[in-house]
Amino acid sequence: MRDYSTQAVRPEVEREELEFDVLFVGGGPANLAGLWRLLDLIEAHNARSSKKLEGLTIGLIEKADEIGDHAFSGAVLDPVALKALCPDYLERGFPAESLVQNEEVWLFTSERSGFKFPLLPPFFQNHGHPIISLSRMTRWMAQQIEAREVPGVDVMLLPGFAGMNVLWEEGRVVGVQTADKGVNADGSPRSNFEPGNRLRAKVTVFGEGPRGHLARQLEEVLHLQQDAPNPQVFETGAKEIWEVPEGRVPEGFVLHSAGWPLKEGEGGGSFVYGMGGNRLAVGFVASLDSADPFLDAHLLLQKFKTHTRIRELLEGGKLIQYGGKALAIGGLHSMPRLAFPGGLLVGDGAQMVNAARLKGIHLGMHGGMVAAETVLDALLENDFSEPSLQRYSKAYLESWAGDELRACRNFHATVAHGLTPSAALRLGLALVSKGWVPGDPLKVSTDAAATVTTEAFYGKKGLQVQELDPGVKFDGARLITKLDDVYLSGVMHDEHQPGHLKIVRGHEVCVACYATKGAPCTTFCPAQVYEMHPDEKGRVEKVEIAFSNCVHCKTCDIKCPEGNVVWTPPEGGGGPKYTLS
Ligand code: SF4
Q1: Whose CA is nearest to atom 5 of ligand 1?
Q2: In this structure, what DSSP letter does residue 124 have?
Q3: What gap in Å lies between CA 292 and CA 386, rounded to an integer?
Q4: Helix, strand or coil for residue 102?
Q5: Positive/negative CA dihedral, 20, 23, 25, 27
Q6: How far is the CA of 205 from the centre of ligand 1 (A)?
Q7: How remote is the CA of residue 567 from the centroid of ligand 1, in Å?
C-alpha cells in the first residue's frame, strides 16, 4: 500500500495501545447517530436478556478540536432518521433554526431574470422540516450522548484525534492509529511531541465524510469500489452565513435555484435558508465533473449574490461566517461495498446522499443506525467477519433509505451537464419509473478526468485565470474575496507542522498542468490554498501551498486533473471552526 502519511512512521516510538470493542472514526451525524443507537440497543438488550453485554468500551474519534467544528452543511433536514432516533427531539432542545414554511424554486437565466416555478418539484418539498446548522446539530448530538449513562458501557468521545492509518491484521481491519502531535515541518519531533495512539477495536465504523483519508487506504487494500457501476463523484459547495435586517426574510424561508450563473453544460445550483436570529445561509454547489478548468464554487457564489432576487435579500446585511465542503452526489450507483472484515462504512464516505433533494444527513444517520444494529449482533455473536457485517449492507439497502437511493440513482448523471430539456424529460421519466431511465445505470467519469485544457474549453492556449473576466467586482461588503471569506471560517493550523497537502507526483507535474490547464487547483479550492506565481517571463517553478488556510473540503484530492494532490489529516485539532454552518 502506498504511504500517503505526512508523518514519519517512527518504528522506534513506543505507542500507547488502547482497546475498544467498537470504534467510530469521525464525529459527523452518521457516526453520532450510530453510537447513540448502539447505546439504546445495548441498554434494551441488557434490560431483557440474561446474557448481558458488559464491560464494553466504545470510542469515537474526531479530527476537530470539538465535535461540530468541522461539520458544515446547508441544511434542510429530513427528520425521518432523527425521529426514529429521538422521537422527542424538539422537547430535548434540538437546535432547529426554524421550520420550513416558505419555499421558492427558481430557474435563473441571468443576473436580472429568472423563472419561479409555480409548483414545487417533488424533490424540493420540505414543508415543516427543520432548517439546521449541522455544526450546532452535531454538538447537540454529542451532548446527548455524553449525558447518557448506560450500565456496562464506557463511552469515550475523543475530539482532537485524527485517524492517520488503518491498522490491519491478516487482511482484516483492527482499528486505527491516530496522528502524531508536536512534529516540526522537517519531521523532527518537538519538545511537546506526542506519539499517535494505536486504537484497536473489534469493529471500526468509518464515517469520515467525503473522500476520507482512511477510506482511501481501505480502497487500496479491499477494492470496495470495484462492483459499483460508477466512481465516487462530488460537488463542491461554498456557503456564507449572513445576518440580515429584522423582518427581511419570512419565517422558515427556503430558496433553491438552478441555471445562471452556471455555464451551459455545468451541473449545480444554489440554496438560501432562513435561520434563527435573522440569519441566512447562502450557498452555491458546483458539480466537480465539469470540464471547465477554472470551475470555482466561491466565485459562482459571489456571482449568484448579484442576482436581483438575492441582492434584495442581503441588502443591509452583514457576512458573519464562511465555509466550503465537498458533497458526495453519486448515490447508489457510486456506493462502495459497505462492510468488510472488521469494519463498516457510513455516511458521505459511502455516498449516502440523495442528490435530487440535495440531502444526505438523514440517509447517513440511518446508515449509522442500521450499522449499530449489525454491530450489536456482531458483539453478541463475537463475529466480526465480513459475512457477519454484510447484514448491515443488506438491511440498509432493503430499508426506506435503499428505496430513496434507488429512486434517484441516475439523477446526477442526468443533470451533470445542466438542466437541459432532455435532462428534464429524463427526470420526469425517473419520477414515474422509480429511478429507471434508458441506459440505466447511466455512466459518469471521475471528477478529475472530466477537466479539459484551457484551449479545449476557452479556445485559448495557456490562458490563465487572471485573464478571465471575473464578472464580479469585489466590494468587501456583499461581494467578498476568497481570502476575506476564509478568514471567517475560523480556520487555523499549527504552522510548524509538516504541510498536510501532499504533492505526490512532483511539482513538475503542476508546472505542466499550469501551462495546459491553468492549474485548476488555484480556482477550485474554496480557500485559496494553491497559488502559482509566474516570474516576469510567465514561468512558474512550483505550486505554492498555504496549507494553514485549508478548510478540509477535500476538493483538491478529488478534482486535481493530474491526481497529484493527496489530502492527509493535519495534527488533530487543526482546521476550520464552524459554529453556525
Ligand atoms: Fe479544500 Fe484542498 Fe483547498 Fe483544503 S486545500 S480547502 S481540502 S481544496
Answers
A1: 550
A2: G
A3: 41
A4: strand
A5: negative
A6: 25
A7: 8
CATH of domain 448-567: 3.30.70.20
- C-alpha torsion 11→13→17→23, nearest 10: -70
Ligand 1 center–CA 62 separation, angstroms: 18
Comma-separated ranges of CATH 3.30.9.90 domains in the chain: 98-128+231-331
Contact between 234 and 327 under an 8 Å Cβ cutoff? The reply is: yes
Per-residue cell: 578: 464552524
* Predicted confidence (pLDDT) at residue 2 exceeds the cutoff of 60: no
The Cα 179–Cα 9 span in angstroms is: 10
For residue 554, the ligand 1 atom closest to its alpha carbon is 7
Q: CATH 3.50.50.60 spans which residues of the chain?
A: 21-69+150-181+193-230+332-407
Q: How far does residue 522's CA lie from ligand 1's centre (Å)?
A: 10
| Percentage helix, strand, coil for the chain under 3-state DSSP, each rounded to 5 | 30, 25, 45
Identify which of 553, 564, 568, 578 to mutate to test ligand 1's pocket (most ligand atoms within 8 A of the CB): 553
**Least confident among 153-157, 188-192, 421-425:** 421-425
Closest atom of ligand 1 to CA, residue 555: 8
pLDDT digits (tens, 9 = 90+) for 516-547: 999 999 999 999 999 999 898 888 999 999 99
| DSSP assigned state of 462 | T
Residue 1 has pLDDT above 90, yes or no: no
Q: Which residues of 414-443 are buried (b: 16+ CB within 10 A; e: fewer)?
A: bbbbbeeeebeebbeebeeeebebeeebbe
Give pLDDT, residue 231. Answer: 97
* Ligand 1 atom closest to residue 565's alpha carbon, by position in its atom list: 2
User: What is the 561 CA–ligand 1 centroid distance (Å)?
Assistant: 14
What is the third-level CATH fold of 98-128+231-331?
D-Amino Acid Oxidase; Chain A, domain 2 (3.30.9)
293-334 confidence digits (pLDDT tens): 999 999 999 999 999 999 999 999 999 999 999 999 999 999
7 Cα distance to chain centroid: 24
> If you take atom 7 of ligand 1, which residue's CA is the nearest one?
554
Task: Give the class (CATH, top level) of 21-69+150-181+193-230+332-407.
Answer: alpha beta
Rounded to the nearest angstrom, the distance between the alpha carbon of 549 and the centre of ligand 1 is 8
Three-state SS for 458? helix
pLDDT at 151: 95
Question: In the chain, where does the domain assigned CATH 3.30.70.20 lie?
Answer: 448-567
User: Ligand 1: residues within 6 Å at CB?
Assistant: 501, 525-527, 529, 550-556, 567
In the chain, how long is the greatest CA-to-CA distance? Answer: 79
DSSP H or E stretch at residue 510: helix 507-517
Residue 19: pLDDT over 60 = yes
User: Which of 72, 529, 568 should be mutated for ligand 1, with most atoms under 8 A from CB?
Assistant: 529
Ramachandran region of residue 435, left (φ > 0), alpha (ψ -120 to 50) or beta?
A: left
Count the alpha carbons within 13 Å of 322 in the hemisphere toward its beta carbon: 25
* Residue whose entry in the numeric block shows the C-alpha cell 504511504: 3
Alpha carbon of 468 to ligand 1 centroid (Å): 22
Question: Which atom of ligand 1 is the closest one to the Cα of 524?
Answer: 8
What distance in angstroms lies between residue 384's CA and the mean position of ligand 1's atoms? 35
